[in-house]
Amino acid sequence: MDDLLTRRPEGDTGVNPTYNEERYYCYDAHKDKKRIECDHAGWGYSDETLWDLGFRSESDIQEYVFKRFYKDPNENILSQWHLTSGRRAGNTRKSNRLWSRICNALRRTRTSGTIPGLHKVGIGWENTFYFYGESVSEIEGLAETMLRPVYPDETFNVEFIDRSLPGDMLDRNVKSFKNLEEKISSLKNRAEKALKAAEDLETQAEYVKTLITQNLEVAMRAT
Question: pTM for the full model?
């Protein structure tokens, strides 16, 4: 973690990333600044290594940096709002640097990663199920092969969730099936009401039809 906060991280053993220093104009600061660009997508680290750091969002990074470098209960510094402007700027710089160096790895892991674990399969806009697999591509193949026959017109979106045990997917699918059961119950209830309404309409129609026929007969006898 400390290595990623340096200007030129050393990276994993044997990776040896190279860096270029570029100048650019910062419109916020109204002056020229320098930034470091790395030729390695993970700044010297694999996507798996960066995923296993445990951060999943920018807010996770901000919370880590604050707790690691600035939080001090003895000085009553319990949130970022208690920091001086200078320390708040330092907190922001560290957070931005760290997040910018791992965010793409997190995105790649979610959409095309090869870490064994739990994967989410979104089916259209309404249904979500969870499967265990070795990679995103494996679950994409499973979805196309096994789910496509029963969801022929839906789009599938597969996303890696996290490392897990195979049995964990049972717990994660509980909510999905509960939602399905509620939808099924609602549809059946609506179908029963619709059928009852149709039967009522049919009864009313037959009654009025008979009444009109009787009225016609009476009228014709009278004339």
Answer: 0.80
